[in-house]
Design a protein that fits this description.
Elements lengths: L3 E4 L2 E4 L4 E7 L8 E7 L6 E6 L6 E3 L7 E6 L4 E6 L8 E8 L14 E2 L3 E6 L1
Parallel strand pairs: 2-11
Antiparallel strand pairs: 1-3, 3-8, 4-5, 4-9, 5-6, 7-8, 9-10, 9-11
C-alpha cells in the first residue's frame, strides 16, 4: 500500500508560481510511475502531467505544457509539480497518483492504483 500526501497548495494571483509536493511512503518509489491530476468543481478529474519511475521521461497535458514542470526525487520519495504563469482556469484540487509500473506514462486516472487526498490551488484574477 502506497500512501501519498500532497502539500503546497494555496491561493495565488494569476501569473504567480506555485510548487506542489507529494511525499510517498513507498521505499521502492522509483518503481512507480507518477502523475498529477486535477479536478475543478463540476468537472471530471483530468490528467496534468506524468513521469516515469526513473524520471527520464515526462508528458504534459496541452493546457499546461510550457508552464508546468513535473519532477521527482527518488532519494526523497517525493514528486513535484512546478507551476508558473498560473491562470484562473488552473484553479482545482490537485492530486498526485502512483501506478505500479514505472515504464510508461498513462493519462487515464483508472491506470493509477494509489491517490493522495488532494491539495487546493486557487488562482484569482
Amino acid at each position: 500500500q502506497v500512501q501519498l500526501v500532497e502539500s503546497g497548495g494555496g491561493l495565488v494571483q494569476a501569473g504567480d508560481s506555485l510548487t506542489l509536493s507529494c511525499a510517498a511512503s513507498e521505499r521502492t518509489f522509483r518503481g512507480y510511475g507518477m502523475g498529477w491530476f486535477r479536478q475543478a468543481p463540476g468537472k471530471e478529474r483530468e490528467f496534468v502531467a506524468g513521469i516515469r519511475g526513473s524520471g527520464g521521461s515526462t508528458y504534459y497535458a496541452e493546457s499546461v505544457k510550457g508552464r508546468f514542470t513535473i519532477s521527482r526525487d527518488n532519494a526523497k520519495n517525493t514528486l513535484y509539480l512546478q507551476m508558473t504563469s498560473l491562470k484562473v482556469e488552473d484553479t482545482a484540487v490537485y492530486y498526485c497518483a502512483a501506478r505500479a509500473s514505472s515504464l510508461s506514462i498513462r493519462t487515464n486516472p483508472s491506470a493509477y492504483n494509489y491517490w493522495g487526498q488532494g491539495t487546493q490551488v486557487t488562482v484569482s484574477s
